[in-house]
Design brief:
Blueprint lengths: L1 E4 L6 H8 L3 H7 L13 E4 L9 E9 L5 H7 L5 E9 L5 E2 L6 H9 L3 E6 L10 H8 L2 H18 L3 E4 L9 H16 L4 E6 L17 H7 L2 E4 L17 H14 L5 E6 L2 E5 L10 E3 L1 H10 L5 E3 L4 E8 L2 E6 L3 H13 L4 E5 L6 H8 L2 E3 L3
Parallel strand pairs: 3-4, 3-16, 3-17, 4-6, 6-7, 7-8, 8-9, 9-10, 10-16
Antiparallel strand pairs: 1-2, 4-5, 11-12, 11-15, 13-14, 14-15
Helix pairs in contact: 7-8, 11-12
Length: 379
């Protein structure tokens, strides 16, 4: 694959002619919208005959809610080793709470495509936020733990899940060891029935990093307990923060530099965001709230508003500004250039693979680019 950055005056027809590929291929791979107007600075993935001499095997995970569109799911599953269904909750007594919508259709379609369906376990409260009181109550209670693990085993076997992904955030520092022990017990129980266990890790850059996201996560202990770990290397740019790249590559590298000192590389998966944000300007802390957008949608916003897409070389991320109805906006998102930077890190650090949050919006050029460089493990 070749990445081409659009210049002034470029058209799909002209780019196709110069690269000896079909217009239809460029339109299809890049999900271009009629009348196929391009934005200056837009990165296009151009199909070529180039073959990567070194192809690494990779395990690729994607998170999805049960209400994912059937078309998006079926288009994405061929590229996934695992599909993490988001999510199951639990009570303070350890009783499992299933998703509001039926998860069986996702499980069945995953099996159809040779993709492993994974039960995602989260401590979400009634308000939809991560609840560290709920975590504390369960991981510190032998009775609740026994109930939760027993119910996980029952549901995993009954519904044909291939394992469990534990996504707990904002764990209290005082619960760090108890949480690590909990992950170990779940993993031991799952291995006993031939299933796998993974755990999501906040993006720490040092063992003693302060903050609610970090203090409850023991990288070394969790790396030993689980079969795989997902580094949540995104959300530097986030809904309530100032405009910036969601996953600036220099920050991602710092997380990897620390992670490989604590966890075997063959257990580490790189977290990849499949979304961007649109901020209204000026940013006003505590007031401004960014709108979550898809990566294909971001390019269309640039096209519709005549914005030039720029690329931050330090963050390895595209961005642009535009004005609409008298209000200025700033948009940061992902394109094939920023994805290539992440794939390069996966290869450089010899990681197990990657995990996408999330796959609800289809981003074809990402999957085509990834498949051109990695052999996706289906097992």
């Amino acid at each position: 694959m070749e990445i081409y950055v659009v210049k002034g005056g470029d058209t799909v027809y002209g780019i196709a002619g110069s690269d000896s590929v079909l217009e239809e291929e460029i339109i299809y791979v890049n999900q271009l919208v009629p009348p196929y107007t391009l934005a200056i600075g837009q990165a296009l993935l151009i199909p070529t005959q180039e073959i990567f001499t070194e192809r690494l095997s990779a395990r690729i995970n994607g998170y999805a809610y049960p209400y994912i569109k059937d078309y998006v799911l079926r288009q994405t599953l061929p590229y996934l080793t695992e599909l993490s269904v988001f999510s199951y909750g639990f009570t303070t007594e350890g009783r499992l709470i299933p998703p509001a919508l039926d998860d069986i259709p996702l499980i069945e379609q995953a099996h159809e495509f040779g993709t492993l369906p994974i039960l995602t376990l989260t401590p979400l409260g009634a308000d939809g936020n991560f609840n560290n009181y709920l975590i504390h109550t369960v991981v510190q209670s032998e009775a609740a733990l026994s109930v939760l693990i027993a119910e996980l085993l029952e549901v995993v076997e009954q519904k044909r899940y291939a394992g469990v992904d534990i996504d707990f955030e904002y764990i209290l520092a005082e619960d760090k060891d108890a949480f690590t022990a909990f992950v170990g017990r779940v993993a031991e129980a799952m291995r006993g029935i031939g299933k796998q266990t993974s755990v999501a890790l906040a993006p720490k850059q040092s063992a003693d990093q302060k903050g609610r996201l970090y203090e409850g996560k023991d990288y070394k202990g969790l790396g030993e307990a689980a079969d795989y770990v997902l580094l949540m290397t995104y959300e530097w740019g986030y809904t309530y923060g100032p405009p910036m790249a969601v996953a600036p590559i220099f920050q991602v590298r710092k997380v990897l530099d620390y992670a490989v000192t604590e966890i075997p590389r063959e257990k580490i998966r790189l977290g990849i965001p499949n979304y961007g944000y649109d901020w209204q300007l000026p940013f006003n802390k505590g007031v401004t709230k960014a709108r979550t957008i898809g990566n294909v949608e971001a390019v269309q916003i640039a096209v519709e508003n005549g914005a030039e897409i720029l690329f931050d070389e330090t963050a390895q991320s595209p961005y642009f500004n535009y004005e609409k109805e008298g209000i200025w906006h700033e948009v940061w998102f992902e394109d094939v250039r920023s994805m290539q930077a992440k794939f390069d890190l996966m290869k450089e650090y010899r990681l197990n693979g990657a995990g996408y949050w999330q796959i609800m919006r289809f981003f074809r050029s990402n999957w085509v680019l990834m498949a051109s460089q990695f052999d996706i493990v289906k097992s």
